[in-house]
From TrEMBL:
Belongs to the ABC transporter superfamily. One of its GO terms (cellular component) is plasma membrane. Keywords: Amino-acid transport, ATP-binding, Cell membrane, Membrane, Nucleotide-binding, Translocase, Transport. This is Methionine ABC transporter ATP-binding protein. Pfam families: ABC_tran (PF00005), NIL (PF09383). SUPFAM superfamilies: ACT-like (SSF55021), P-loop containing nucleoside triphosphate hydrolases (SSF52540). Gene3D superfamilies: 3.30.70.260, P-loop containing nucleotide triphosphate hydrolases (3.40.50.300). One of its GO terms (molecular function) is ATP binding. GO terms for biological process: amino acid transport. InterPro entries: AAA+_ATPase, ABC_transporter-like_ATP-bd, ABC_transporter-like_CS, ACT-like_dom_sf, MetN_ABC, MetN_ABC_transporter-like, NIL_domain, P-loop_NTPase.
Length: 337
């Protein structure tokens, strides 16, 4: 378990204090994939670097497995860092060494016996799906392959925690999904606690169990990934979710569409279309679907529909009241007679 208690981190630049973190309280459970999302300058990287002692808080306490980092000796901090792997946006590979030697570098730093290098390198190369590339140099690898080397190197010391600093930001969308699937597999197979920072909500949606949303050095919301999408509370979170769903109608469509235009959210097994069909039957109204999207977050359906309702005003009012009780959320976007 990783705990942050009342964490403040202050830097001084030109005699002016700059707060990277402000009174952060956060707990990351053992074995979960925990996402930290925020724009540049939100404090994500600073928070991540507190976990392995690369940064120290100005105020507050960081604990890993119940032990405060503030009271650790240099030797204890070294042991903590050996148990904590880290991968980076730009891979940080040694360009003059091939894949096997990049992994061997991490083994040497950890004090592994040289006689054990070949077997451990074979295990790690197989684990990340790079068989046959052991003698390739970084310049001969794709971005995704380079990140796989970075992951293998981070796992060389059998860490219990893996820190991912914008690990997919330099990758194309297809490669990003492949790396995320690899991280998910490693979490399940090895029981790794993975802490992943990103500014991309789709990355969070694909892999994270829980998420913290950061803005201007503060954690503004913490929730399961599903709850984050289905019931976002803070405006910053709502902006991320709206960006991910991309459910908006062009203004010309809004102006040209008669009736009451509503946005519906539905979750789980209850689909929006079946509920609308029941509303049509019950209240003798007409429904036109203007836009919609269904996604699966942590294997549970979550969808949004934008529809127009036409019919008598009394029946539409009754239908809206009924829909509000049946669906997750309902919002009237426009009402044109």
């Amino acid at each position: 378990m990783i705990e942050f208690k009342h964490i403040t981190k202050r830097f001084v630049r030109d005699r002016t204090p700059i707060f990277a973190l402000r009174d952060v309280d956060l707990t990351i459970q053992k074995g979960e994939i925990f996402g930290i999302i925020g724009e540049s300058g939100a404090g994500k990287s600073t928070l991540l670097r507190l976990i392995n002692g690369l940064e120290h808080p100005t105020q507050g306490t960081v604990k890993v497995d119940g032990v405060s980092l503030g009271g650790m000796s240099k030797a204890d901090l070294r042991q903590l860092r050996l148990r904590t792997g880290m991968i980076f946006q730009h891979f940080q590979l040694i360009q003059s060494r091939n894949v096997a030697d990049n992994i061997a570098f991490a083994l040497k730093a950890a004090g592994v016996k040289r006689a054990d290098f070949p077997e451990r390198i074979r295990e790690l190369v197989s684990l990340v799906g790079l068989e046959g590339f052991e003698t390739n140099f970084p310049s001969q690898l794709s971005g995704g392959q380079k990140q796989r080397v970075g992951i293998a190197r981070a796992l060389a010391n059998n860490p219990t925690v893996l820190l991912c600093d914008e690990a997919t930001s330099a990758l194309d969308p297809v490669t990003t999904l492949q790396i995320l699937e690899l991280l998910k597999d490693l979490n399940e197979r090895l029981g790794l606690t993975i802490v992943l920072i990103t500014h991309e909500i789709d990355v969070v949606k694909q892999i994270c169990h829980r998420v913290a949303v950061m803005s201007q050095g503060e954690v503004v919301e913490v929730a399961s990934t599903y709850d984050l999408f289905s019931q976002a509370k803070h405006p910053v979170t709502q902006h991320y979710v709206d960006t991910a769903l991309q459910i908006e109608l062009p203004e010309r469509i809004l102006q040209a569409t008669p009736g009451k235009i509503i946005r519906l959210q539905f979750t789980g097994e209850k689909t929006g279309e079946s509920t609308l069909s029941e509303a049509i039957r019950r209240y003798d109204i007409s429904v036109s679907i203007l836009h919609g999207k269904v996604d699966y977050i942590q294997d549970v359906a979550f969808g949004v529909l934008i529809v127009s309702l036409t019919g008598s005003s009394d029946q539409i009012a009754l239908a809206l009241d009924w829909l509000a009780t049946e669906l997750h959320a309902l919002e009237v976007i426009q009402d044109v007679a």
